[in-house]
Amino acid sequence: QVQLQESGPGLVKPSQTLSLTCTVSGGSITTNAYYWSWIRQPPGKGLEWMGAIVHSGNTHFSPSLSSRVSISRDTSKNQFTLQLSSVTPEDTAVYYCVREVPEYGPDYWGQGTQVTVSS
Predict the structure, then answer these.
(1) What is residue 54's DSSP assignment?
(2) Mean pLDDT of 9-17
(3) 105: helix, coil or strand?
């Protein structure tokens, strides 16, 4: 059973960089055929796919966020990390890390973590 767990600060100040880490157990992030992704949901809005890192280490990002987002990984810890720079209150959301099956979508989700951007 694959499990994902997000961790990071729940409050970030405007203009700072948001950083969240996802720890994966029950499966390796270097396993072929999966994307390891970040999805967020602002209050009262739908889910927004932010980006992914694949087994090779290559990354893919949403065009609307590509100038501000990066995803990296630590294979020794089986973790991948989201960084979102220059945050504003509009980046307030519940952030989820997920495992995606390409062309099918997410099959495993973390529980989600609330991040609020406020001074």
Answers:
(1) E
(2) 97
(3) strand
